[in-house]
Amino acid sequence: MKKWFLVGAFTLLCNMFFSVGFAMEENKDSAIDWEISVKEKLTPEEIEAMRWTEVFQNELAQYFFEVKSIQPDSADKDQVHVTIKAIYKDKAVIKKLNEQYQKKMEGEDSIAYSEMQMIFQLRKRMYAVKNLKLYSSKGVLIAEQTKAVSFVPVPVKTFADTMYDFVRKCAQN
């Protein structure tokens, strides 16, 4: 009796093994690619929004920085690089920029934001804007300026002051 039970169990296991093998062989192109998650996948817009952290706001613009972009300079550890995004709010500034770059934009597109590569000198309390990219509301690059690095003092109670304090604290940690 025990012998027949073992033979039956063995036959059942072999049958299951070979049937799974044949089923996988039939579906070689569709590999088992399962993803188990409770959360929904993020859209590209949500991923882009998560990339930026708000740091300052005034009547001109709303300023964000990219956390992953905060990097010490390889040659001078006193200098820290950071990428900044400014979303313009001031209608007069937007109108002026639209007039200036109208030829580069399509249809009813308008200037929306800029991205800046800034460098902060921590000990001297100075900063410089190394690169500036101007984008339209459709995300099209309208203009790009790369400047010679020229450091100026960080003005008090401004966006640069807030960003300087944050970068300094990040560098200390």
Into which percent range does the helicity of residues fall? 25-40%
Provide a count of the helices. Answer: 4
Average of pLDDT: 83
Binned strand content: 25-35%
Q: What does the main sheet amount to?
A: 8 strands, antiparallel
Give the overall shape.
elongated
Helix-strand pattern, N to C? HHEEEEHEEEEH
Query: Termini distance?
Result: 72 Å
Derived from helix and strand composition plus strand pairing, the structural class reads alpha+beta
The low-confidence runs, each spanning 5 or more residues with pLDDT under 50, are none
Beta-strand segment tally: 8
Radius of gyration based on Cα positions:
28 Å
How would you describe the overall organization of this protein?
- The protein has 173 residues and is α+β, with helices and mostly antiparallel strands.
- It has helices at 2-26, 44-51, 91-101, 159-172, and strands at residues 52-57, 61-66, 71-72, 79-88, 111-121, 126-136, 141-146, 152-153.
- Strands 1, 2, 3, 4, 5, 6, 7 and 8 form an 8-stranded antiparallel sheet that branches.
- The protein starts with a helix and ends with a helix.
- The relative contact order is 0.11.
Q: How would you describe this structure in keywords?
A:
173 residues; alpha+beta; eight-stranded antiparallel beta sheet; elongated
